[in-house]
Description:
By secondary structure, the chain is an all-alpha fold.
Amino acid sequence: MAHADIYADLKRDHDKHRAMLKELSDLGGEPQKRRDLFEAFRLEVQSHAAAEEESLYATMLGKPDLRDDARHSVAEHKEIDDLIGELLDMEADGAAWEDKFAHLRHRYEHHIDEEEEEMFPAAEAKLDTATEERLAETYEERKPAELELARANPPGGDDRD
């Protein structure tokens, strides 16, 4: 079995999200295609964020020297979730949607860049390999389950189990 790596798992998802954001930005004049791709993005981001919080962030919150980074990232997840919810409530074929989407893209890319450049290295310096492997296993187990929950629960809802 390959070595489980929480940071590689998360980075792989981030790269997928960046590609989806670019594709969404490049889609002009195709509101149904845009809505379908945005829904795929929503599901991907919601399941990623929840599984990330249940694995890496949960552990970081228990470490005083990593707690502030985890809290900051959880707050950014909430902000992004709210923006996704706002976009879902808008028609996907106008300047207002495009402006809100550009804001979401900027905030989300900032968030994942910050995780990769600051938070992951800080966690890697403080967590041992066995913990990181356990976190990767938790993430890989939780993400599919979180995808099912995301399908049933739109952004902004707190009805999750």
